[in-house]
């Protein structure tokens, strides 16, 4: 278990938890924090002083009287700095600046190709963040959270054996970024950050949920016990190489096995399958456009993808019994895919596991990744 | 999330956690408990006094001096009572008495048939527990933990839609037992209790692990963050109706779907498949005997079962990234089954997820269920 996933006292009363209580409006005084966290007033004061000293919190004026001494009001300073966020996909990226409460100030989508290799791609994205910061109010950059579309060795920030990211295997994203910008950096897998962003920003009440990212590749992030769940090696949620039951014929996957979910249901797989039938597509966005225009071949293949995703998720749902399954990424906007994924889940899961299961699109949409990247780096800075 | 699974402060400093620290020998004084739990000395004292008042702990003599006032020694009283445990299978049951530390005092295996229905079966098992208590030292019975081979509505102790348990659907095991014996009762699924027993008694250091029970039926228990994980509806770990990739033809399952793991890899499925080939078997134990005697048909079918279990577990391992997968139940003693399950896992999982994965038999063997049943009721009594 990694430190930030550990259940226990730290999860309810750490400095970052106190900050989050203020950021969400749940607490507006030290007394609120003590009541909500169960910490002693002296421990709350100690942590609040640290947060104030580091510029994360400010204590002003007088709060509402509750009898006795009037509590002072805690708030997150608007001029306390900004957070940078990068969400890198296979063919595009989204960069943003966010305030210390984790709300987006400015964002920008840009075309990039991971095939160009890590140095030019990351260099371009760091420059874009710096530009957004420079065009802002002048508040200082406090740190940058970076999401990448491949497995990340969580403790190190290094990419490990990614599919569809030639030239990135073993690349130390953390080191590269840290060498170029003078602020703290945190790196994680894009699906993990999508899960974290959606959970914290939209439905933080969910204890157990699965967040599937279906874009050029396919993956998932997991929330368990209200926290991002990474598992023993940090690879939890990586369903991309699970074998699909009904894929026939079973195509060869980049991992060397056949019939993997990635090889039959990812955006890249859909492009390849349509191209092999002579239909001129070069990107998952092209496939989505064909579906929008009612192309039967494209729609049929997207329906199959939804069914395959549903088959693998049916094992996940039976085993993990989550409250919700969310789908995000470029393919999530496609109604036929969501419909056939739902059909598969309802057909193959225990009725007990689906009777109250939510199966929905992300409510934070394309912003989920940058919201999660910001949460990751805020957590990391305050922990350290 | 159910109360006893909630991560957070309760998981580290509750009265049951303090008792467990003494039971495992990790703590022998209030000072040890304060140090290990992080609780204040006054909170520790308050909880210890409650445990002493309720007869779970005794404070005696003087402990080792560490300078200053000598700590008094905490221990679990040998005459403080006994715990009853029932582990019911489809064709047999195991009942036991255990001391307040959760060690077995006496146990007994007996033939029972769940097909006989809940009242005669549970009546017989309660009588067997009472008899074991009566033949002991005279210490009073404090409570009984009951494991049953089907889905249990955790909050209520009622059985919900079980396969292979005719007459048990909706039966309120908790109520039936509580009406007959004057002690607290707790009821859970057999696979959950197997997981809890193995985890607490053998490898409590594991944070994330999966425990497959392969007997007449098939199921799994899950440990996450060091706690029994039940999921949103309490059905986590129920992999019995996951569809198996390569089962062809796909047999009809009792749930109305085809190709479920239960229908191709449970002990009951193996008996049926061999019987259909004219091989005279009536129970999973008969199948195991044939394998022991080198019967090629029985061995082939057991190898297939291992492969099917491995196929479903490969999705579970990719998704959940546990440190260990354990197998228990009658079929677990069969080496060809374990070997083909391992082969499937290594073939179909991410290398990152299996590089340090333990794939083993339970080390507590047939006792895992009664050890878990005792832990369940001890936890329940102390919580209440």
Automatic annotation (TrEMBL), chains A, B:
<protein>
    <submittedName>
        <fullName>Transcriptional regulator</fullName>
    </submittedName>
</protein>
<dbReference type="GO" id="GO:0006355">
    <property type="term" value="P:regulation of DNA-templated transcription"/>
</dbReference>
<feature type="domain" description="HTH iclR-type">
    <location>
        <begin position="17"/>
        <end position="59"/>
    </location>
</feature>
<comment type="similarity">
    <text>Belongs to the ROK (NagC/XylR) family.</text>
</comment>
<dbReference type="InterPro" id="IPR036388">
    <property type="entry name" value="WH-like_DNA-bd_sf"/>
</dbReference>
<dbReference type="Pfam" id="PF09339">
    <property type="entry name" value="HTH_IclR"/>
</dbReference>
<dbReference type="InterPro" id="IPR043129">
    <property type="entry name" value="ATPase_NBD"/>
</dbReference>
<dbReference type="InterPro" id="IPR000600">
    <property type="entry name" value="ROK"/>
</dbReference>
<dbReference type="GO" id="GO:0003677">
    <property type="term" value="F:DNA binding"/>
</dbReference>
<dbReference type="InterPro" id="IPR005471">
    <property type="entry name" value="Tscrpt_reg_IclR_N"/>
</dbReference>
<dbReference type="Pfam" id="PF00480">
    <property type="entry name" value="ROK"/>
</dbReference>
<dbReference type="InterPro" id="IPR036390">
    <property type="entry name" value="WH_DNA-bd_sf"/>
</dbReference>
């Amino acid at each position: 278990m990694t430190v930030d996933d550990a259940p226990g006292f730290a999860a309810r009363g750490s400095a970052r938890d106190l900050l989050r209580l203020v950021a969400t409006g749940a607490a507006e005084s030290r007394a609120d924090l003590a009541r909500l966290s169960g910490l002693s007033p002296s421990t709350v004061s100690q942590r609040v002083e640290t947060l104030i000293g580091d510029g994360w919190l400010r204590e002003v004026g007088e709060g509402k009287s509750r009898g006795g001494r009037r509590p002072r009001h805690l708030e997150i300073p608007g001029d306390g700095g900004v957070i940078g966020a990068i969400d890198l996909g296979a063919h595009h990226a989204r960069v943003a600046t966010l305030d210390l409460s984790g709300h987006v100030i400015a964002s920008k989508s840009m075309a990039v190709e991971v095939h160009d290799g890590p140095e030019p791609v990351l260099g371009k994205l760091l420059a874009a963040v710096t530009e957004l910061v420079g065009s802002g109010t002048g508040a200082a950059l406090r740190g940058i959270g970076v999401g990448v579309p491949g497995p990340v060795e969580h403790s190190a920030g290094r990419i490990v054996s990614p599919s569809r990211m030639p030239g990135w295997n073993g690349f130390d994203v953390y080191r590269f970024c840290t060498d170029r910008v003078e602020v703290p950096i945190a790196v994680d897998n894009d699906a993990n950050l999508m899960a974290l962003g959606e959970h914290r920003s939209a439905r933080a009440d969910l204890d157990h949920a699965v967040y599937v990212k279906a874009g050029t590749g396919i993956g998932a992030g997991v929330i368990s016990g209200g926290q991002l769940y990474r598992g023993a090696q940090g690879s939890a949620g990586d369903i991309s190489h699970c074998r699909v039951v009904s894929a026939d014929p079973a195509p060869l996957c980049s991992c060397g096995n056949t019939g993997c979910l990635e090889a039959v249901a990812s955006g890249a797989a859909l492009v390849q399958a349509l191209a092999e039938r002579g239909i001129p597509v070069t990107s998952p966005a092209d496939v989505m456009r064909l579906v929008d225009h009612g192309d039967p071949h494209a729609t049929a293949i997207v329906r199959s993808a939804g069914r395959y995703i549903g088959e693998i998720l049916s094992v996940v749902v039976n085993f993990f019994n989550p409250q919700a399954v969310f789908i995000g990424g470029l393919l999530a906007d496609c109604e036929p895919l969501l419909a056939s994924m739902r059909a598969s889940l309802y057909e193959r899961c225990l009725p007990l596991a689906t009777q109250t299961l939510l199966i929905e699109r992300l409510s934070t949409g394309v912003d989920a990744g940058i919201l999660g990247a910001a949460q990751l780096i805020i957590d990391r800075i305050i922990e350290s």
